Amino acid sequence: MGWNAGQGPEAGECLAWEAHRGPVFALVVSPYGDLWSGSEGGVIKVWYGEAIEKSLGLQREEKRKTSFLVERSSIDLRAMVSDGGACPLPAVDVKLLLSDNSRSKVWSAGYLSFALWDSRTKDLLKVLNVDGQVDTRFDILTSQDQHSYETKQNLFSTPKKEKARNPVGFLQRSRNALLGAADAVRRVAVKAGFGDDTQRIEAFTLSTDGMIWTGSANGCLAQWDGSGNRLQEFQHHSSSVQCICNFGTRLWVGYMDGSIHLLDPEGTLLGGWIAHSSPILSMAVGGSYIFTLAGHGGIRGWNLSSPGPIDNILHSELIEKESSYKKFEYMKVLVGSWNVGQEKASHESLRAWLKLPTPEVGVVVIGLQEVEMGAGFLAMSAAKETVGLEGSPNGEWWLDVIGQILKGHSFVCVGSRQMAGLLIAVWVKINLKQYIGDIDNAAVACGLGRAIGNKGAVGLRMRIYGRSICFINCHFAAHMEAVSKRNEDFDHVFSSMTFSASSSGFLTTSVSASAAQLLRGPNGSRLPELSDTDMVVFLGDLNYRLYGISYDEAMSLVSQRCFDWLRENDQLRAEMRSGRVFQGLREGEFKFPPTYKFEKHTPGLSGYDCSEKRRIPAWCDRILYRDNRASSEVECSLECPVVCSISLYDSCMEAIDSDHKPVKCVFNLDIAHVDKQIMRQKYGEIISSNKKLMYSLQGLEAFPESNISTNDIVLRDQNPSVLKLQNRSRKELARFEITGQTSNSSATHFPGFPSWLKVSPAVGIISPGQTVEVTLQHGEPRSRDFLTGPSGNNSSGADQGKAAATLLVIVTGVYSTAGRGHTVHVQHCRGGGIFIKRL
Description:
Blueprint lengths: L23 E6 L5 E5 L4 E4 L1 H8 L3 H13 L2 E2 H4 L5 E2 L8 E5 L4 E5 L3 E6 L5 E6 L9 E2 L2 H14 L13 H23 L8 E6 L5 E5 L4 E4 L5 E5 L6 E7 L2 E6 L3 E5 L5 E6 L5 E7 L2 E6 L4 E5 L5 H12 L1 H4 E14 L7 H7 L7 E9 L5 H12 L6 H15 L3 E9 L2 E8 L6 E10 L10 E9 L2 E9 L7 H14 L38 E7 L9 H9 L3 H5 L3 H7 L43 E6 L15 E10 L11 E12 L1 H14 L1 H11 L4 E3 L3 E5 L4 E7 L6 E10 L5 E3 L5 E4 L2 E4 L4 E8 L23 E11 L6 E11 L5 E3 L2
Parallel strand pairs: 22-23, 28-29, 34-42
Antiparallel strand pairs: 1-2, 2-3, 3-4, 5-10, 6-7, 7-8, 8-9, 11-12, 12-13, 13-14, 15-16, 16-17, 17-18, 19-20, 20-21, 22-32, 23-25, 24-25, 26-27, 27-28, 29-30, 31-32, 33-35, 34-43, 35-40, 36-37, 36-39, 36-41, 38-40, 41-42
């Protein structure tokens, strides 16, 4: 944090001081104008607004001395609330700060906890965990921090009445130390990202009705009252919450996957839409719009009244012009799978397998199993996965040789993922690369303890012409009798596969309009992330075998190429018909021989296993898929944007390097999408030409007429005064917000309430024709020794028995920031009663 000292803000120069030793994660200004900052290790510091403002108003030669004073006189709240070396605050980074102006409180948030502070007195009011339970654990303050706090208290704090405190005895401190030590591992794990931190707090905001809303990494939204009581929670989406914004009577929630949800104050979902193809990092309200900032740098504006009558008009007009911006694309995707049995294939085998059947193939997806195995390799791979590392020499070899073959057809690799022996990679034609993006990956282990990657799945997800498509490469449990285990492997992969952030730190996967329904099941449970795609393809060594048939019977049918009869004994088809696995997916008709098990380097059908084990041939290697269609009769449209068919599903008998034969499938994809440039052009034409729409937009800019009961208030002693705000409109809601301005010796106005003034509520909603009462009351003024100038004289004039402040009351509608301002002058005098000067 830095302000450069100089002649003052009007000269482009400002005040500078060292704020923290470590990085600062959050800043907020309280209603009293104080600057609060949150840093690593749970450190929260506060600089009094009066001190900052006074320093900016000094002469140049005095300013550097005052900057030093401001820097040294900050309040370290963590140290201040520590008692006997024990601190009630967890020692985790303070990621978020929120000022509750209506109650004069500040909320600070770490990873899994909150703290509530009095923004006027800086007292710690409560420490909570994310479940709303009061946290009574104590962290241990280091001796250095304790000494630093005591030194600052001696140097810069003024003598004041000592607070009675309960001493922490030796036994209590010992207990706190043990609890703190036991909790340290959990905190470090959460901070490092290795713990179960799906409840991690990502965003929060204050709604106009005074409620606090928090959003977590698991998509959960929670509503709290101003005292820190958790009231209720809502799960409208599974993606991580990134930001929350409130204006009027609406809440907007921005998610990691680029979607926005609109809620009312009760948490009811009013609507939702895909705003961006990358995470929504921030939102802000201006005029009649809410603006969203995305991870890719894009900014978009959305009308504050949406969804509403304006949207109905726009939707109707845009539907009539749909033919002008609706576009269709056709392409072929080649998907191949091969269990390579730790072998490196010959050039001839690869050429035969990867031969492109048509030049229309624009995307090639390859999934390999058993690229590399062995107990030592699997253990090392599992260890590498825990710290985000992947890959192996064999994996690199395969990527290189396949890339060299496809390079001759103008393909480039755009993404890959390896977990143990599983490897998946995608190549696209150079001329299509501009239409393919947001590549993301994931991995799920199904081996020993769901931790070892000898069995499991790796996946890649991407946008193709703006539509979300996933490819999942699997290797499930082996052996004839392990049908249930294979089904469980699929269920585990489908339910738990979650795509990680990209190398930039952002999750950039888009979801389609057709799949924009909420990820909720019929009983309210969350649906898997793989449900929210336009198309998903499962490929790999699924290991389903032939049942109810002997080795000799199977070999006889194979030799006669009677594959139709053999398919009746296929475990996978039987399990799918019974609805026990791969629900909602389908497979193309295949007429190729079983792909397992072969003697290596033996060509043709004579290569099937003839050892003592006499393994029954089986179609272990499969490719299954799902598109947007609910039935085969549905055609491609913007409502059903991805429709596919199969033009080839075959094995490659020429490949003899493994005990499995590779398989490949060519999908014909029809993709419907919107030409956004043309659509924006049509949108602009509608806005400028539709008179009904123009009239509606102008109406949103209007704000209700309002009255205030007085413009001048004089406070004496502790007696409160009431300021009445009236909404004169009989139809429209009014929103009000009160801010403060305090005069100083330099004749400028310092933003914020003076420390001696309590205003409640400072923000709220006024119903049509109703009146809201705002209470103004004198509070105990805080110490002002930090305002003493370099000469030792206090020049603020605020402690001479009389103080003054100006309140600005802004009244707007709930669909626009346009409004009217009322000025209220407040004076505080010692002694006597209350004098209110009315207009």
